[in-house]
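Supplementary notes for students who missed Thursday's class. We covered one full example, reproduced here. Read the sequence, then the structure, then the short commentary at the end.
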Amino acid sequence: MKVSEADLANTQNFVELKIAYYDIQEVVISKFKPTGNLRKDVSSLKTGEKTLALQQMIGLPTPKGDGTPPELPVAGFSGGGLTFSLESIYDILSGERKKKERANQYERMNTAVGNIRKYYGEEYFAALKIPAQLTDNFLQFVYTSENLYPYIQANNYEAIAVYIEKYLPIYQRRLRNSSLMEVPK
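Structure (token representation):
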């Protein structure tokens, strides 16, 4: 059979083809089955899983970042012109930005000190002759003396042992010369 120009011009000769089936991606079914009643679904979950399951059920995206609000730039280019952020300018002039930076650094240091202490354990510091009540003080001293954050981010706690051993004699000498070791009467 040959198709001519007249056959193509006739609109009655065209047949619409419909898709017979769709490829469906693999579906993973978890133990949690929502009933449709939000209160019942939330109360049936464990406390730690509640927010995560609820966010997944609603379809919320997972949050990005470390939980701290991002710093707004002072000036930027948007909408074809130069824009200024009054909040950022106020933060700089009032000193709020520096306070936030210091608070974030302090939180990061406390988290790092806790992780190092947990990794090495109390026995390690007792063997180094560091009193249990001053372990955090010693780790803060080491943390502020060296930039340990890259090692902590990479979970390379063994590399931190070098710095602990490096600053141990200095810290012990400072302890002997200070009043921290004296027992209050």
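Commentary. The first helix runs from residue 5 to 9. The radius of gyration is 31 Å. If anything here is unclear, bring it to office hours.
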